[in-house]
Amino acid sequence: MPRPNEEEVLVVAAEAGHGSEQSNHDSGSGGESCHFHAGIEHCVGAGESESEDGAGPRCNLVTRSYNVPLRIGTLFVILATSSIAVYGPILLKQFSKLRMNGFTFTIIKQFGTGVIFTTAFIHLATHAQLYFANECLGRLTYEATSTAILMAGAFLAFLVEYCGHRLVLHRKSPMNSDLKPERNEGENALGQPALVESRGASHSYGLEALGHHHDGLSQPDSKLSVFVMEAGIIFHSIIIGVTLVVAGDSGFISLFIVIIFHQMFEGLALGARIAAVQHISMGLKLLLALAFALTTPIGMAIGLGVLKSFNGNDKGTIIAIGTLDAVSAGILAWVAIVDMWGHDWLHGELKDSGLLKTIVAMVALLAGMVLMGLLGKWA
What we know:
By secondary structure, the chain is mainly alpha-helical. It has 9 helices and 5 strands. The strands form 2 sheets. It has a 3-stranded antiparallel beta sheet, covered by helices on one side. The two termini are 24 Å apart. 42% of the residues are buried.
């Protein structure tokens, strides 16, 4: 696979964008010309060109003035947008007669699945790879670093869910799994002894209880799956907030508009899954939604605090944000493919749904992918 142009890699090491760079230029100190990519600056000296032979990377901090009141105002806009998006499906489920397997929630859930899937690969995995290719970090001896961290994130998500499921099964077994099925005196159709569960046919204490029809343990609407999904979203939402605030004034408004849509789509995706959880209180659902609504504004507040000292091309910053992006990508990839997409279509309500509902769900799934993928040009 061809390597990215190393002269371009420097400017694209940011959480919230890997698209167009024209028109995002500011003048730095000392006559330098700087352009931004979601808060990460790339500067060349006066009269120099990015493509000029011998022009090395400029990794030092460039001081400039920022429109702080504008950034404070947009913090509250992001907070309101995120809140409306994530609370919408929850309140709709609570105060309406809509069924979770009806058309409305099917559309929201499948659109959300497409959003989370695309976020993992186009937004997070790509950005992590570009971070670790930044010239200010130096050349890595292991080129698959970002992919390896992504795999670690996916394995971590799997491990959390698997251990959680085993713990639930252990607690559900009153005799610590010592109960064994009793033999029925009768025979089945093949003339073999039939087995009868000691506590009735409605319970299973083996690993098969992890299936998609036992108490929702491995469903995307279970508490554990939602917790894992939210963890992956929260990690990169904080980074989004920081990188939005430290972006230069020339590109701030356009980036802000894109992130508004980003937050709306992700909020709908998470809110639909929280709304579908059956065994938690309404208060906990609202707290889970609140955690999402607050994370990007918290990241923006952190960005405001480090506005004068943040250097996106610092080695420590590159490693920290690149690692968080890759881990988040792995977590969300696992959740999207296994808990959401695979479950709904292979084991859930869509495995034998009618033609119309299947088509509508497929269109919603693709719409989530396409729209979130389009936002990936800028955010």
